[in-house]
Structure formats: C-alpha cells, structure tokens
Write a structure and sequence with these properties.
- With 192 residues, the protein is mostly beta strands.
- It contains 2 helices and 14 strands; from the N terminus they run E-H-E-E-E-E-E-E-E-E-E-E-E-E-H-E.
- The strands form 3 sheets. Strands 1, 3, 4, 5, 8, 11 and 13 form a 7-stranded antiparallel beta sheet that branches. The protein has a 5-stranded antiparallel beta sheet with strand order 2-6-12-9-10, with no helix packed on it.
- The chain starts with a strand and ends with a strand.
Length: 192
C-alpha cells in the first residue's frame, strides 16, 4: 500500500507531491460559489492538527464544517489532488487507480462523510463520483472504500475528497491506497 498521509510530517503535499512534485491538500466549501458554508480551518491554519488523546496516533487532522443548508448544492470538502492541476499538462494531472484494492483511512467525529473522487471524463471534463455516506462516532474507526463503491472506474483520477453536506466535525488520520506500492506511481500517471 501507499500511505497518502499520516500527518506526522505535514507539508501540505501528499505522498505524490513529496515524491514527484505534485499533489496538494485543500479545504473548501460552497462559499467559493457564494454560499454560506464555512470550515473552521484552512490548510495554512495552526489549528488544523490535534495531538495527544485527541489524535489517533501522533498527529491527526481536525476540521469542523458549518454547512448552510439554505445554500443550494451546499457542501464542504477536505481533499487532495494526486496529480497536477486538472487544467494543466506540465506534469501528470491524472492517475490510473484501477490497481487499488481500496482507499482507506481512520476517522472519528460527528456527522456523515462520503468519499468522493474527481476524475477526467471521456470528454475531458471534470466528473465527481461519491461513495455512500458513513456516520462518524466519537470512537476511531477504520473506513475502507473499494472501486465497487463508486459508479465509475478509478481511471484518470485527479483528486480524492472527504465530502460533507451537513454540519460535521472530522478527525482524520492514516489515509492510504491499498494495492498500490510507492514504486508503482511513476507508471500510473496519465497525460491527455
């Protein structure tokens, strides 16, 4: 497997970013489109991490979303790109994740979350595909999503997101791609 992030050596880039110079973290809400939802922290915030008893082990990411349900299409997202910017072709922007047996992570908190992928469609446009929602509890749980949990193949993937549509508090740790070793990444990159 490939550890995407355990948050012990946070540099705002994923494993891919640290290794190949691309792939970065982001937090956003519908406020980017004029909505009223907000996140408690951004990727530059000193308050983004917890440690000690609040963390799974070492450090864990912590963010709360205050979702404005009056906003049409309301949402909040914590996510990361695994490739370069979607609209640029200077480096690999997309990755073929069909060899991944699962995308897994540890999480706790309150509210419901869904795993979302952003990928390139056959027409070159951005598509979003979500898994089912799971309910967080105060106890750490290990969540595993397989390709069967999405309505599409995991090919030409650009970003992986934790999606929320209601008020949610998330503690997140130990994100990984099962079935893909670090040495496989150079052969999985795609350009169009």
């Amino acid at each position: 497997f490939t550890v995407v992030e355990n948050f012990e050596n946070w540099k705002k880039q994923t494993f891919i970013g640290k290794s190949f110079g691309q792939g970065w973290w982001f937090i956003c809400t519908d406020s980017l489109q004029g909505g009223g939802s907000r996140a408690s922290a951004g990727v530059d915030s000193e308050n983004l991490f917890v440690s000690g008893d609040s963390a799974k082990s070492g450090k864990s990411l912590h963010v709360s979303f205050d979702i404005d349900e009056e906003t049409p299409g309301h949402y909040g997202v914590i996510g990361f790109t695994i490739g370069d910017d979607f609209d640029k072709a200077e480096m690999f922007a997309f990755y073929d994740l069909r060899k991944a047996t699962a995308i897994s992570f540890d999480a706790r908190g309150s509210g419901k979350i869904s795993l979302q992928i952003a990928k390139r469609s056959d027409k070159g446009e951005r598509e979003y595909h979500e898994s089912y929602f799971v309910t967080l509890t105060e106890k750490w749980e290990h969540f595993t999503f397989t390709a069967d949990d999405f309505d599409t193949e995991l090919i030409a993937v650009n970003a992986i997101n934790i999606l929320v549509i209601d008020d949610t508090e998330i503690y997140l740790d130990n994100i990984r791609f099962d079935g893909i070793s670090p040495s496989m990444w150079p052969s999985l990159g795609m350009r169009f």
